[in-house]
Amino acid sequence: DGKYHPVKVIERRKLQSTEPSDYEYYVHYTECKISVLPRKILEIDVSFFYNNDIEMIVNRRLDEWVKLEQLDLDSVETVVDEKVEDKVASLKMTRHQKRKIDETHVEVGHEELDAASLREHEEFTKVKNIATIELGRYEIETWYFSPFPPEYNDSLKLFFCEFCLNFMKRKEQLQRHMRKCDLKHPPGDEIYRSGTLSMFEVDGKKNKVYGQNLCYLAKLFLDHKTLYYDVDLFLFYVLCECDDRGCHMVGYFSKEKHSEESYNLACILTLPPYQRKGYGKFLIAFSYELSKKEGKVGTPERPLSDLGLLSYRGYWTRVLLDILKKHKGNISIKELSDMTAIKAEDILTTLQSLELIQYRKGQHVICADPKVLDRHLKAAGRGGLEVDVSKLIWTPYKEQS
Ligand code: ACO
Ligand code: ZN
Questions:
Q1: pLDDT tens column, 74-84
Q2: Residues 6+ apart with CB under 8 A from 75
Q3: Domain coordinates in residue numbering, the chain
Q4: Which residues have any ligand 1 atom within 6 Å of their CB?
Q5: Atom 17 of ligand 1 has which residue's CA nearest to it?
Q6: Which fold has domain 313-380?
Q7: pLDDT tens across 268-327, in order?
Q8: What is the DSSP secondary structure assignment for residue 345, as one 8-state letter?
């Protein structure tokens, strides 16, 4: 935006030039308030987040290589590395997430992601490796590091087959691949079709390579989420826009086959060219429709990213307030949860953040003044694409013996 913003220099690399002292610098924008970050995520109202959610937003999406002349050298400070430990205290993770982040030693037993592994994660992932990818008709700038096998790490760009998600270092390899790849849609069962939109359910155990490829791809846009999946344990729900050339992936979410923590979604991604069109809310709505069919309540795996939280908050607000608006008489959190498959805690925090829970005559009540509800609904953004439940043909996962 033409202004200077504080950065931390994380890495430097030599430029191939005649000047021996020519370097490029990899910088991290240190301003925590995402509302002030200029380019890619505008208009985010930070008051919307809880305090500990803000802690989670270690936003590294804007990290990039810059030239010396882009830096204001008069304002340079040398800083001693801040203590990661403090941050970690609030960054509780489940064993499961810890296991996924810690790909090298699969050690479970610590409830929290300890300072050492967080530092290790940040150290290991501090510089983006792959800068762009080609996928179908799009060339996409990546956001974060992803742990591709070492032989891919010297390439700045990777070429993905949009159907089987195999990736290659050179365009010619992809062209050769496309001539013999016979997939035209994700492997697995088509469980939803409405107009040009289709959803495919892919079992990570039956389609291991596809599942792994999808994780490598997704990690380029997810930061503190996953480094590596034990894909056997997951189902992948891949949303596609279909035409006569095939089914083109727009996004996906993954779901554990069995979750002790009642997670109904592990990771969610809308590919950047398709973002902000309502697909994120569609995927979220879809995950709750699956929970309803299972007769369970669900919640997304934590931590949520900034964009993940915004999308969830928008979804929860809309679904809950739509019910409150129509409902006559009393309604409890439990009833709301039964109707929506949204976990009670998420209902409570959503209503609390909207200041709709009041303490009256010794008990907590939901305030449902229609004018207030309408104001919040307006602020919650667009509804997103609707899931037409009559088009969903699905039975919950059962282990095959
Ligand atoms: N700036 C401001 N608000 C945004 C932005 C943005 N760039 N992107 C999304 N939002 C908010 C808006 O409130 C939007 O609603 P609105 O358009 O009605 O105002 C709402 O989020 C959702 O918009 P959708 O179009 O339905 O969602 P989208 O298809 O863009 O997908 C998603 C949202 C999946 C979070 C996407 O941003 C993404 O893939 N991000 C990268 C990966 C990620 O962070 N995933 C979540 C991690 S947490 C987890 O996996 C459990
Ligand atoms: Zn292919």
A1: 888 876 554 44
A2: 4
A3: 7-70, 313-380
A4: 41-44, 221-222, 225, 265, 267-270, 275-281, 300-301, 304-305, 307-308, 310-311, 314, 381-382, 384
A5: 276
A6: Arc Repressor Mutant, subunit A (1.10.10)
A7: 999 999 999 999 999 999 999 999 999 999 999 988 888 899 899 999 999 999 999 999
A8: H
